[in-house]
Write a structure and sequence with these properties.
The complex is a heterodimer of chains A (about 120) and B (about 110). Chain A has about 120 residues and is mostly beta strands. In chain A, about 0% of the residues lie in helices and about 55% in strands. In chain A, the strands form 2 sheets. In chain A, strands 2, 4, 5, 6, 9, 10 and 11 form a 7-stranded mixed sheet that branches. Chain A has a 4-stranded antiparallel sheet with strand order 1-3-8-7, with no helix packed on it. Chain B is mostly beta strands and about 110 residues long. Helix content of chain B is about 0%, strand content about 45%. Chain B contains no helices and 9 strands. In chain B, the strands form 2 sheets. In chain B, strands 1, 3, 4, 7, 8 and 9 form a 6-stranded mixed sheet that branches. Chain B has a 3-stranded antiparallel sheet with strand order 2-6-5, with no helix packed on it. In chain B, a hairpin with a 7-residue loop joins strand 7 and strand 8. The radius of gyration of chain B is 13 Å and the shape is globular. The relative contact order of chain B is 0.34. Chains A and B meet through strand 5, strand 9 and strand 10 of A and strand 3, strand 7 and strand 8 of B.
């Protein structure tokens, strides 16, 4: 069965970087784009971008361009999301989610369990 | 950047019908998707391609589309349907950027 297992909670100081991992199993890792979505406490879902695990190509939401880096290691079926120059309002649960492309858009069919990143001095 | 607009909250009594709308300029050109999220859990897809229901989702969940607005309808609402609901789509400008609506809190009175 498809599973996305994320790394554990992180506590970071403002200005630091964080790297969250997402290990995929139960399907061909390179066959589906991996997206990252975040959710601040009590707030809505925010799409951050995607990575094509096959080519390594990425597409980031405008808000995160220059600030987020998505990578992957196909040898261990793992995607990574690194966010730099953290601020307190980056405190959120970060999810990886498998994307199914449909005619210019698409949807998420499987989600990781979420990783809480807390930014605090 | 492209935005999808949802009402912040909808309230219904058990057994009634709940309707949650989502508006966006690109919705006539792009499919919309709906997710249900309960506290402490990851979202779950309840409608895809405007009106299709994934396997395992109860028949009381349905979706429709008209112009720049898509609607999630929950018929015969049950207490277990109380949750946050998000629409999701993409802009039509060729950026391949996906976007979520702000979310709607469904309260079952």
């Amino acid at each position: 069965q498809v599973q996305l297992v994320q790394s554990g909670a992180e506590v970071k100081k403002p200005g630091a970087s964080v790297k969250v991992s997402c290990k995929a199993s139960g399907y061909t890792f390179t066959g589906y784009y991996m997206h990252w979505v975040r959710q601040a406490p009590g707030q809505g879902l925010e799409w951050m971008g995607w990575i094509n695990p096959n080519s390594g190509g990425t597409n980031y939401a405008q808000k995160f361009q220059g600030w987020v880096t998505m990578t992957r290691d196909t040898s261990i079926s793992t995607a990574y999301m690194e966010l730099s120059r953290l601020r307190s309002d980056d405190t959120a649960v970060y999810y990886c989610a498998r994307g199914i492309a449909v005619a210019g858009t698409g949807y998420f069919d499987y989600w990781g369990q979420g990783t809480l990143v807390t930014v605090s001095s | 950047s492209y935005e999808l607009t949802q009402p912040p909250s909808v309230s219904v009594s058990p057994g009634q019908t709940a309707r949650i709308t989502c508006s966006g300029d690109a919705l006539p050109k792009q499919y919309a998707y709906w997710y249900q999220q309960k506290p402490g859990q990851a979202p779950v897809l309840v409608i895809y391609k405007d009106s299709e229901r994934p396997s395992g989702i109860p028949e009381r969940f349905s979706g429709s589309s008209s112009g720049t607005t898509v609607t999630l309808t929950i018929s015969g609402v049950q207490a277990e349907d109380e949750a946050d609901y998000y629409c999701q789509s993409a802009d039509s400008s060729g950026t391949s950027h996906w976007v979520f609506g702000g979310g709607t809190k469904l309260t079952v009175l």
